[in-house]
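[User] Could I get a sequence and structure tokens?

[Assistant]
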Amino acid sequence: MLAAHAPAVPIAAQQAIALRSPQLAYAPASVPSGYRYLRWKWDENASIMRLWFRNAAGKEIVFSSTWQYGKCAASRRQTLRIAGATVYWTHGSRQQQSWRCVPAPGVGDGDDVGDGV
């Protein structure tokens, strides 16, 4: 018999996020080993949903969902296809970032919002 695997974001948190902003209610299905869900926050002024994950050493991963206006893929270093979705990735000297584009209401219809794909 297979053991049930707990979701990366607790169901109660997922439900609260969906109530707050259903269009941006995205949560990762998994996170790197050793990272655990910490909290979520809706930033009304920036229209961004953030979820925090932390490991035992105190390092954090922040997962964000926000409306995309303009050129979605403009700052990408690499384009990936994950589970049928286009995901972009880039990095700086101290961090990495990946994102998937969600069109703002009335703007486009998918992953290629404004990026000419």
Observations:
- Residues 77 and 92 are 10 Å apart (CA to CA).
